[in-house]
Specification:
Oligomer: single chain
Number of helices: 1
Largest sheet: 9 strands, mixed
GO molecular function: carboxypeptidase activity; transferase activity
InterPro entries: LD_TPept_cat_dom (IPR005490), Transpep_catalytic_dom (IPR038063)
Number of strands: 14
Distance between the termini: 21 Å
Pathway: Cell wall biogenesis; peptidoglycan biosynthesis
Protein name: L,D-transpeptidase family protein
CATH class: Mainly Beta
Strand content: 25-35%
Organism: Methylobrevis albus
Helix content: under 10%
Radius of gyration: 16 Å
Order of helices and strands: EEEEEEEEEEEEEHE
Length: 199
């Protein structure tokens, strides 16, 4: 997936923002990972697949089949791993068959329902509500876009659902799925185009 940002005065991505269940299907492919919740926690689980079994963090509100913007939950479904970005000033390009490009300081992601670029990458500065991708805390040193509410895109059904780095204590996310940096770097070389996380 090409992660090209737009600005307010550039041509905007046009699609039919019709109501839909914005998931990528429920089938399981050979290279998919399965997210399994820990019985003792609603916000921690394990990613199993590609010959690995890795602890992960999920949204602070657990899992949901009715994702809404800002609810803090990780959506259920088959979330394709579409490619992403990495901090070239902090690490070398990870070994990975997926598309990865260096993160730029002006990369952002729109999370404003009703905006034409909702759940799309944007170039900062950007007036509507957005998330800055260049972070000081290291969580986006590697960040992959998950295929939630991408095409078709439904306004208010959730944005910026990423697969990124976790805090050392696996603290809950805002709805994303997260691995520690060492575990992410172990996993990336094993991912193949078309891989997904089954939630």
């Amino acid at each position: 997936m090409k992660l090209r940002a737009t600005t307010a005065n550039r041509s905007r991505i046009r699609d039919r923002d019709r109501p839909a269940t914005p998931r990528s299907g429920t089938g399981t492919g050979a290279g998919d990972l399965r997210l399994v919740l820990r019985r003792s926690s609603a916000t921690r689980g394990r990613l199993v697949g590609a010959g690995l079994d890795l602890p992960c963090a999920i949204g602070r509100s657990g899992l949901t089949s009715a994702k809404r913007e800002g609810d803090g939950a990780t959506p259920r479904g088959r979330l394709a791993i579409l490619g992403g970005v990495y901090r070239a000033d902090r690490l070398r390009r990870p070994r990975c068959a997926l598309e990865l490009r260096p993160l730029r300081r002006d990369d952002g992601w729109c999370d404003a329902p009703g905006d034409a670029n909702y759940n799309r990458p944007v170039r900062l500065p950007y007036r509507p509500s957005h998330e800055a991708m260049w972070r000081d805390d290291g969580l986006y040193d590697v960040v992959l876009v998950l295929g939630w509410n991408i095409r078709p895109r439904a306004q208010g059904r959730g944005s910026a659902i990423f697969f990124h780095l976790a805090r050392p204590d696996h603290a809950p996310t805002a709805g994303c799925i997260a691995l520690t940096k060492p575990d992410m770097l172990r996993l990336l070389p094993r991912l193949r185009p078309g891989a997904a996380i089954i939630v």
